[in-house]
Amino acid sequence: MNRNERDDELARELQAHLDMEADEQRERGLSDDAARMAARRAFGSPALARERTRDSWRWSAFDTFIRALRFAARRARKSPAFTLAVALVIGLAVGVTTSIFALIDVAFFKPLPYPSPERLAYVSVSFEAAGRAASDRVLTGAQWEVLRDNAKGFQPAVYSEWTSGVNCGAGDRAFFVQQQRVGASFFDVLGVPPALGRGFTKEEDSPNGPRAVVLSDSLRRRIFGESSEIVGRKLLLRGEPYEVVGVAPPGFRAGAAADLWTPLKATVTGEGSGSNYQAMLRLKPDVSLGAAAGELDGLSSALPLPPPSRDGTQWVPRFRVKPLLEGRTADLRQPLLLLLGAVGMVLLIAAINVGGLLLARQSGRAAELATRMALGASRAQIFRDVLLDSLLLVALGGVLAVPLAFGSLDGLQWLNARMFGLVETAAMDGRALAVAFLCTLAAGLVAGVLPAWQSVARRRRAFPLGLLVAGQVALVVPLLIGAGLLGRTFLSLWTLEAGFDPANLLVARISLQDARYESPEKVDRLFREGIARIQAIRGVESVAAGLTVPFERQLNQGVRVGAQPIPGERFQTTNLIYVTPAYLDTLRVPLLRGRALRDADSAAAAKVAIVNQEFARRYLGGRDAVGEFIRLGGKESVQIVGVAGNTAQRNFDRGAPLEFNPTVYVPVAQFSGLAMVHQWFSPACIVRSRLQPEALSKELAAVMQSLDPLLPLSRFSTPVEIKGQTLGLHRLLLSLLGILSGLGLLLCVLGVYGLVAGSVAERTREIGIRMALGETVQGVVGKAMRPGLIWALAGVVAGAPLLYLGRTLLAGFIHGVTAVDPLTYAGIAGILLLAVGAASLLPALTLTRLDPAVTLRNE
Amino acid sequence: MKQPEPERVELLQGTLDMLVLQTLLFGPCHGHAIAKSIQRTSDDALLVEHGSLYPALHRLERQGWVTTKWDKAPGKNREVKYYLLTPAGKKQLVSVQNKWAQLVAAIGKVMRPA
Fold first, then answer.
1. Which of A112, A300, A630, A720 is the most exposed place for a label (fewest CB within 10 A)?
2. Does one domain contain both A485 and A536?
3. CB–CB of B50 and A21 under 8 A?
4. Closest partner CB to B54 (pick from A14, A23, A42)
5. Is residue A481 part of a domain?
6. Are the beta carbons of A390 and A130 closer than 8 angstroms?
7. Chain segment A515-556, per-residue pLDDT in tens
């Protein structure tokens, strides 16, 4: 029997009952009408009986739900503007929350796309002394060898997380591809054997071993199409022939997206003397992560000790191990948590805001609900219906949130957060949609429970809407302060004294990972010829080349001061840039003392260097630097011939992203170890000219083509673009926090507006009387604004403790301003005051048009 | 003529089902008759709003303690829905009767100590 038949039958049954009772009463002598009335009285409410009986049917819960839903839908359709407003507010809030969750999911929860990812772990080294631990570092070559040679309960692998651009030639075609360098056991440890061929052998992974390469699936298709005869083919990589030994499965990646993999060839000298290697391991089947940590603890004693620091502290290295996912995303966790906190607050603000809207509308339904209650509806039913009403409106917002979440994830990707390839792998999938659903449900409950509760409250006292406004303001205050502090930080970093003239400069990169350019003489000759030809372009003012330019990450090198070694002496770190003589001139970095580098500083001449002011200040104690000797990387000594001004550079370790660091400039002709540094850095050609960047780029590309067709210029950028990349994370955080706090503020303003407008509408008559009794318009408007201002102020006070939470999350992102920066606080207070004031004033102003006589007559 | 109203007591929660089953022990009955019968046998002391009977009847039907059939009411030109006790319903009645007897005895002991 279906639902309708059942309903019909019940109706017939009840009607029969009523008729029989009426018959009986008639037989007792009552009139027709009176008999029917008596039957009704004896029966009680038929509607209630029907309702209760339906409730006893098995599927009734679902049926009543559908019925209530239909009712709610009808009401939603009747007030489209209101419905749209609620859906928009919730949709925006849930949408951004969902897209941030998609990122959080990738960084925190989603298992890595390898077999048994829970058995993969990340190994780093921390230095500890007297109960203190310095931040974790990646491994040096010597540390890696300890791990490699002693592993028992696990299989370790070494790799480089970063990719670098290299030229790849196949037949007569050239490709600019991203290369990642990985150790021999890399594919085994990840548990992803190449789809074709094999990974690298130990032999291929050792210095001077056979040249082997593994291709990504997409590069293989670009080069070889669908042909399956790929293993054994030859490619030209950095000008040298490589044999293809394998092809990775489609979509495989470890960190940044790479087009091909080459052996890392880890060493203990050169790059291996510094912390440059990432390490991971796969646990053997019966070994737990805890057991592996214990084993690594034991191995730590075999790690070489660093020399004691200047204050005599002996730092002791220790292996540390954590799940691979955690190790890989360590740097992203804090910014993502910060964003999660921010979107969570916006979601809560949105829910409270909608709660206020629903509550205000609720007062208009009081009569309807009273009638329903009088007709026998239970409190539970009314509560359920009103809640469902709210949930439906919010659910519409949830539906709207899905496309918005897709859009905002695209937006995040567009904002160029090159977060280690993280943003690229984030996707709106079932998990993100489930979170969108849960967020919507939570928002619906928060927003809907108050009106529902109000509708069945025994004592009909209006809930103070101001409390909701205060709640929203309390939540928006830390958002605004956070955005303000980040904004000030960004501004101070962006406007940081650059130390050079960035206008009219274009930087072109050339990948010199090329066997033909491993000696300083050859690189020097390339630069000389190139510079001479570029100089000849009309409109070019000055040209130079150098390993790096300001605003970006620099080569870091150990340095010792003095011509002769001192026993127990330790390395200090400096940035090292090889340059052509015109480098500082072209950048317009001032030479403060001594002389500039010149063409005569050749490979055969005495070795010379220029240091910057920061170097002289920090390592030479204010002595006159000119004439002093330094030893770079412990090699032969170099004489300082000049001191240059500081330039802003991307910071090496934590701290402000842009800073003045000690820097040494050496002539490229005297630089050794080019092959190594060219693995990490593509040197820069710097051109100062009056030409448009597009036109100049074309000219430069033509010059390089004529010079060496196998060396294409890989990319062009202006110093401002480089700065933008360096400050990318800050820019991303600032943009997002700015958008979120703006959204929050807008909602607060709407809340305040609604509060004041509502109270004005409610009290028009009273105000009319007061005006008739002689109160001034100013007085009336002032009083009308009061609830908005007072509740907002209460919110500010209540929000103050939340600032502590914000400060913890923001720590590490704020530079150049203190976390209690008075200017930020004053500025935010001003903005909030202005916004709340305007939102209170606008509705109050309607009172100036109020005619007391009309109001009174309307009685 | 107005009769003096007997003093009425509210039905104890959950006892209505038991009363309905007991009434049906004497044969099939429709809702109206069940209501009348409960009122009559309790000498009008029990206040049963007729409407409240139906949720109970449908509940009993769902639990399989009664079955129903539509039939002509005797002497009337009207179909009514009859409720019949099932064997399971009889068992249930015995069980609740026992519980009820225990409850009444226990309460009696407390209220009128020997």
1. A720
2. no
3. yes
4. A14
5. yes
6. no
7. 778 888 888 889 999 999 999 988 999 999 999 999 988 888
**Residues in chain A closer than 8 A to B54 (CB atoms):** 10, 13-14, 49-50, 52-53
CB A527 within 8 A of CB A703: no
Query: Nearest-CA residue of chain A relative to B57?
Result: A53
DSSP label of A669: G
A13 closest CB neighbour out of B31, B52, B76? B31
Does a structural domain hold residue A255? yes
Q: Is residue B112 part of a domain?
A: no
- If one counts the domains in chain B, the total is 1
Per the structure, the count of domains in chain A is 4
Chain B residues with CB under 8 Å of A14 CB are 51, 54
Range of the structural domain that residue A368 is part of = 333-493+728-857
Q: Which residues in chain B have Cβ-Cβ distances shorter than 8 Å to A19?
A: 78
A10 close to B (CB below 8 A): yes
Please report, to the nearest 10 degrees, the dihedral formed by the alpha carbons of residues A659, A663, A666, A668 taken in order: -30
User: Looking at beta carbons, which residues of chain B come within 8 Å of A46?
Assistant: 51
Same structural domain, A534 and A660? yes
Same domain, A661 and A791: no
| Structural domain harbouring B60 | 10-107
CA distance B35 to chain A (A): 10
Residues A641/A610, Cβ–Cβ less than 8 Å: yes
Helix axes B53-62, B15-24, angle to 10 degrees: 70
Q: What is the ipTM of this complex?
A: 0.84
State the pLDDT at residue A562: 80
Cross-chain Cβ contact A43/B51 below 8 Å: yes
Residue A327, domain member (yes or no): no
Nearest-angstrom CA–CA distance, A435 and A105: 10
* Per-run averaged pLDDT (10 residues), chain A, 859 residues: 80 88 87 88 84 71 74 84 90 91 88 90 88 80 91 92 81 83 93 92 89 93 86 86 93 84 85 82 92 92 79 83 87 84 92 89 78 72 84 90 88 63 75 92 90 76 80 91 89 88 90 79 90 91 94 86 71 88 94 92 91 90 86 82 93 75 92 80 91 88 81 79 83 87 91 87 82 84 87 88 78 77 85 89 84 70
pLDDT for the residue numbered B3: 47
Q: 10 Å Cβ neighbour count for A611?
A: 29
8 Å CB contact of B49 and A42 = yes
Interface test with A, best of B29, B39, B58, B72 (most A CBs within 10 A): B58
Instruction: Give me the pLDDT at residue A38, please.
Output: 87
Cβ neighbours for A171, distance < 8 A, ≥ 6 positions apart: none
Pair (A535, A664) in one structural domain? yes
